[in-house]
Amino acid sequence: MLAYTVRRLLGTVPLLLAASLLTFLLVDLSGDPLADLRVQQPPVPAEVIEAEEERLYLDRSLPERYVLWLTGIGGDGDIGLLRGEFGPSVRGPDYDIGQALAERLGSTLRLVAAALLLALGLAVLTGVVSAVRQYSAVDYTLTFVGFLALAMPTFWLGALVKEAGVWANQQTGYTIFYTVGATSADTRGFTAGQLLADHLGHLVLPTLTLMLTGYAAWSRYQRTSMLEVLNSDYVRLARAKGLPNRVVLRRHALRTALIPLTTVAAVTVAGTVDGVILIETVFQWRGLGDFFVEAVKRSDAYALMGWLMLSGTAVVLANLAADLLYGVLDPRIRHE
Amino acid sequence: MTSTNHAENTVSAAAGDGTVLDVADLHVRFPTDGGHLHAVRGVSYRLRRGEALGIVGESGSGKSVAALAVMGLLPRTAQVSGSARLLGQELLGLGDAAISRVRGARIAMVFQDPLTSLNPVHTVGRQIVEAIQAHRDLPRAAARARAVELLRTVGIPQPEQRVDAYPHELSGGMRQRVVIAIAMANDPDVIIADEPTTALDVTVQAQVLEALRAARRATGAALVLITHDLGVVAGHVDRVAVMYAGRIVEAGSVDEVFSTPRMPYTLGLLGSRPRMDAARRSRLVPVPGAPPSLTQQMRGCAFAPRCPLAQPVCRDTDPPPTGQGDGHTAACHFADRLAGVRPEELFPPAPATAAVPLRAAPAAADGAPLLVAEDLVKHFPVRSRGLLRRRSGEVHAVCGVSLELRARRTLALVGESGCGKSTTARLLLNLIPANRGSVRYRGQELTGLSRARMRPLRSRVQIVFQDPFASLDPRMTVFEAVAEPLRIHGRFADGGPRRVHELLRLVGLDPEHADRYPHEFSGGQRQRVGIARALALEPEVLVLDEPVSALDVSVQAGVVNLLEELQERLGLSYLFVSHDLAVVRHVADRVAVMYLGRIVETAPVERLFTAAAHPYTQALVSAVPLPDPRRERSRERIVLAGDVPSPLDPPSGCRFRTRCPTFAALSGEQRSRCVRQAPPLVEQGEGHAAACHYARARNLLRGTSTDLGQEPTQWR
Amino acid sequence: MSELRTRPGAPTPPADPPAAARGTAHHGRLRLVLTRFARHRMAMTSLAVFVLTVLFAFLGPLLWPWDHTVHREILPNQPPSWEHPFGTTNAGHDVLGQLMRGTQQTLRVALTVSVLATAFGAVWGAVAGYYQGWVDAVMMRAVDVLMVVPLLVAVAAIGGNVRGGTTWWAVALIIALFSWTTIARVVRGVVLSLREQEFVEAARAAGASDARIILRHLLPHAAGPVIVAATLLVALAILLEASMSFLGFGIQAPDISLGLMIDNARTAAFTRPWLFYPPGLFIVLICLTINFIGDGLRDALDPRQTMVRR
């Protein structure tokens, strides 16, 4: 198992390196960070533009810039991914991209973690019920709900949920659901309990929305995988041993049917990143999703690259975690 | 079973007369797209305490479905009616809790495929313990001790260590023995074994049947042994029931049924199977036609459309099972006229090929070497998963194989799965490149030929595959499948369609069906299409890779007859790759036996079966069950220990020594020769060669083995 | 024994009559697939609805007097009426006219993406799977790397940087650029498993060339899974296009797409629901029908059909 872990861990290095190149090219080739500045009216003096180009290292060649961005060699100390520096921002020399990312990481992680856990739990539950009651009314209903969730644009669903929350608040006259932001604007003077309640209150609606995006695909998958296992010879043997149905389902069917879900769940983490961007926009969270939209709008190249590397690393790590979990769950992999 | 009156059965079902399982008028239907599939149509049998009942039938006869219905293991969509009483308790229709108390405790089951029967994520120990604790309040430690004990009983070496192994760490044979251990865990009254050895090699089959015997000895359980193999039944049961189209058509003591069958289908089954213990007969007796579709309402006897005896009464009235004396029943209107009839008297011989103009292979002197392989070596690299895909080892699939296929002869290449026989066949066809060695066709070297240079030679040497379902492209019509080789070689323009129709007629198919798709044909018919495709380019040599092993017994005979007739009429030479020694004895002129990538023995067919000199060949011959209960009981049997070693890391010296009974009996000094030196093939006279340092010819087909003693037994 | 001989007049059954007597079945497989698909009720309904949607989007504008642009004659900010069944915007658009054009643009983008990505992905996957070895390793690692970047992130990053308005074909191109990877994986999987099939080996034994094997044997088999994946790709592309528009990185005004309509009506759910709900419902409807069609196709094309269905 240790050798397996080390091997998988080493495998992520070239993948991340390739992802960094892709990220760099994607951002660098798709636009000029100073495009706005160049066409500004009245025209900005050439020296100012030149100074900006130098500050943003735009005066160097493409390969040079990539190496610089990755390692920081030959830079002014404000760049170099491997040293923990994300590079200068178009927003000015005082804007620290790394710090901004770190500030926003917390609220986004909260949202993602809550949504993923809920989605997984619900997907496993409905997938199992659907499979065990295949072709029943319950199965058809759950299937339809799954397809509906799959067809729903995340942002539209978010807006619906938000409006529903506002409506509920208006009807009751209390603030039951918070529909804007990750926390209340002013949390000074809150006790720890109040702070927690405030955080949770803001979390409810966005989590619900984000959850539905992952849930749809996973529950379908869990159903398929559970059906396959239910028709397997070893489940039949478990029944032939005289194990009651619920023991067979829990110990033999569910336990094995969960294995493939780990891989699928990891793959859809990338999809969750997409969902976060949309949902944070709808609910006006100042999280990583919002950061991304702003970076794109401002053509803030290094901010965008940093952000992409962060999300890329998250995706790679999720896949790694799934691989390792797979090894834990499936002895055939563990002993390879 | 002596009666069709089920009311009587239910009355007498109390355990007083020793009946443990009483199945009466069992019906199973499945709703399908094409209407209701009536898979089991009124099956009744009684099983007495400690008795072994064999249920024989071909695929689709309903034998497994009937067993699963008794166990309550059919999918929910199945509609089951009738009665199945275990010690007087009705099993059909029990709720989950009630049936769970019976299953595994009073009645247990062993399934066909040991590779999928065990849950891959739990250790085998845990799966046995679970079976014990489902029915008994035993503390974990005691249950585990019992699990070890059970593993020992079924013959698993080092059970204390193996109990903690995961299924994937055990071989197929061992896994099946674990399943048997689970079945016997609670000393059940009945064990149902559903094709328990079908997925296993013949030497492993012997081990598993031995384990099943041990399980019965230890528990006193009655056995229902479901199989398609008449040989397995002959040696292991007291009574036998033959199933056809969802119904028991004949039943009785195993001696009675095998010696004086009273139902035409049983006669057909016995006659269509070649016998390993008999010299080649002229032709096998194929049963014409195919089993009926069970989705249609059936009137009259289900076998009537295939039966040479059929009269109008057979098509109107389904014959009830009638007593033939001594507990022997047969469901046939003319059962009394069948006493003492031999299969070949009942089923009239018919030519297997149609009279079409043929072009025989260009004259080559009878017996001249056509295809010669020398010292072939093939290794397959094994790569690790993951990014780097490092080479983590090599499978030594074929190691120094030399063969000589002569004109108009059949050379059989036999061995168990993984011995390298199929790889050798592909090397001979130059379908995969050899690492070393040479293949010459009529003196021309094939290895290293470019594709373009190889193409004209492809028409001379063709191949027929094992799986008639996989070997035809499901999206091509039969016409296109047979025409493809002609198109590739640019011969289609010149009378192609006529040629295709000729070929189809030649292999016994109706050219009218040429524009149908493979899925519309039965297995036997598809195999005929595969043969027609191989013959399209008028080859001289056919490589037949297990051509009949995927087919039902009654269909096999027709294909074997076809191949033999084609050989005679077209002057073909066959390389017949097979694990089935009975078929090999019937078709081959010469036999080469492979074990772990090497040829261990080669001889003319008669000599190989009557005077095998290599211990492995001897074990193979002795392990094949004969469809003859009396001979089966009196035969000497060599049960090999252990499993075939991994071809990733074969043993040094003689590769067979780890399982060799001769090696086990040698002194330490004699053994070291086997360990150090790989034995070469040494001529034993009459074209017979064996690769064993201590070869000694024996005949294992007679009642008791005979030491032929032609070789000086130098090592005594 | 002579009485046991077959009666002379008895018809001897032909050796092995055809297992299924379905009559002469030209194109038997296609017909089988169509029959199976037709039995899938949700899929058939969905297909009908989808066809209607396409007609609405492409023929509707020819029949309806208002297009998607601002018209001075239109009274702004009106709820649905006989004259404007879906109401009007406060700038003076007819919402029905916008819906027709929006659906049209959305479908254009999605179908283009599906065709481009499927063609490219199928070739990529087939080449990797057929040649195996290092070719396969390099090509599939590239796919792995592409999949590290979330789809919307990739297309938004590019779309957001393209200045001066994004046309529908540019949006389609950008989405296709990143969404072919799933197709490539599907095709590679099919080719890998087919390579080892006996019927492919039989063709090789008959002397068939690589091209013949790929064209006659491998690709026809990959068609089933590819059709299913391509169908689902249409739904994915619709959602992606809508998300891009919503973030402001997709199709730009004065042109319109369903996503852009939702973005414009973001705050109007309460006050002017006729602006907010219809475009969203249209997206849901199109994606739902496509997913059901894909599901029906999968069932119809999958050889591992269960015995009982619905």
TrEMBL record, chain A:
Domain (ABC transmembrane type-1) ranges: 105-326
Entry-linked CDD domains: TM_PBP2
CC terms in the record's Gene Ontology section: plasma membrane
Transmembrane segments: 111-132, 139-159, 200-218, 258-285, 305-329
UniProt membrane topology term: Multi-pass membrane protein
Pfam families, A to Z: BPD_transp_1
Gene Ontology biological process terms from the UniProt entry: transmembrane transport
Entry's localization field: Cell membrane
Main location: membrane
Keyword Cytoplasm attributed: no
Keyword annotations of the record: Cell membrane, Membrane, Transmembrane, Transmembrane helix, Transport
Transmembrane helix recorded as keyword: yes
UniProt family annotation: Belongs to the binding-protein-dependent transport system permease family.
Protein name as catalogued: ABC transporter permease
Organism: Thermobifida cellulosilytica TB100
UniProtKB/TrEMBL annotation, chain B:
Membrane topology of the entry: Peripheral membrane protein
Listed GO CC annotations: plasma membrane
InterPro entries xrefs: AAA+_ATPase, ABC_Ni/Peptide_Import, ABC_transporter-like_ATP-bd, ABC_transporter-like_CS, Oligopep_ABC_C, P-loop_NTPase
Source superkingdom: Bacteria
Any single Pfam family the record assigns to this protein: oligo_HPY
Keywords: ATP-binding, Cell membrane, Membrane, Nucleotide-binding, Transport
Cited CDD domains: ABC_NikE_OppD_transporters
Subcellular localization, as worded in the UniProt entry: Cell membrane
Span of domain ABC transporter: 21-270, 382-621
Record keyword Lyase present: no
This protein's record includes keyword Electron transport: no
GO molecular function: ATP binding; ATP hydrolysis activity
Main location group: membrane
UniProt GO BP: peptide transport
Family per similarity comment: Belongs to the ABC transporter superfamily.
NCBIfam families: oligo_HPY, PRK10419.1, PRK11308.1
Name listed for the protein in its UniProt record: Peptide ABC transporter ATPase
From TrEMBL, chain C:
Residue intervals passing through the bilayer: 42-64, 109-131, 143-162, 168-187, 222-240, 274-294
Membrane topology (UniProt): Multi-pass membrane protein
SUPFAM superfamilies with a match to the protein in the record: MetI-like
Chain residue ranges for the region called Disordered: 1-24
Subcellular location: Cell membrane
Family as reported in the entry's similarity comment: Belongs to the binding-protein-dependent transport system permease family.
Primary location group: membrane
Species of the source: Thermobifida cellulosilytica TB100
Key words of the record: Cell membrane, Membrane, Transmembrane, Transmembrane helix, Transport
Protein name in UniProt: ABC transporter permease
PROSITE patterns, per database record: ABC_TM1
Any GO CC annotation of this UniProt entry: plasma membrane
The ABC transmembrane type-1 domain, residue ranges: 103-294
GO BP annotation list: transmembrane transport
